[in-house]
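Q: Entry one of two.
A:
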Amino acid sequence: MDIDKAMKNPASVFATPEALSESSDLTAAQKHAVLLQWKDQLQQLEAADDEGMRRSEAPSGAVGDLLRRVTSVLSRIDDDLKRV
């Protein structure tokens, strides 16, 4: 697994945030970092949508749904890191 590629474009390495969460190739800290990057990218896409710069590759609502899932997985990873 290429951590640099995952940091640049998490969706190109992991099909879903849940798949990232279940990966045994990353430490909890690496998962946290990749999820933060994914969240940031999704928030930028949402902002572009809000400004009327809609992307044709993503159906309406798909970015928001994925952002919610990334945020949920990130929250679980954060909780795990706090317990350690």
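Q: Entry two of two.
A:
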Amino acid sequence: MRNRSRVLAAVAVAALVAAVAGVAWAAQTRTVVGVHKGSLGRMLVDVHGRTLYLFLKDKNGKSACMGTCKSFWPPLLTKGKPRAAAGVKAAWLGTTKRSDGGVQVTYHGHPLYRFSLDTKAGQTKGEGLNDFGAHWYAVSPSGTKLVPSSPPSGGGYGP
């Protein structure tokens, strides 16, 4: 009887550990969108503080950035409902199914992206670039594009 009680206790502990691990894993798959104050003003950022961009070629909440485009402009993907950090309107966060199968985070109807050359928090090297058929802009907490006071130097990367 004692051994049976120990086995049941061990099973109960294992189940509890698995449940806690499952909750922790689920929390890690949720993407967090925050706000950072940088050279362009207040802008949306990912959990690592990297600037989030919108693409003017996107229509009706659907991404127009596929193939080579997404290697320069990685979409902000999620496996769960995105979470809003302070300064982000949670009601404006959503998702859209991409044609390549991923689930991309949207804000105020705009699919969100990072720029591959923004390697540190707060960088905005993609701001205003004309890549892959349209311009890219950092996103403000009000869901609008941030426009630089002067155009970026250099060119884009796509056709």
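A: Comment on entry two: Residues 4-28 have pLDDT under 50 and may be disordered. Strands lie at 32-38, 41-45, 53-55, 83-84, 93-97, 103-107, 110-111, 130-131, 134-138.
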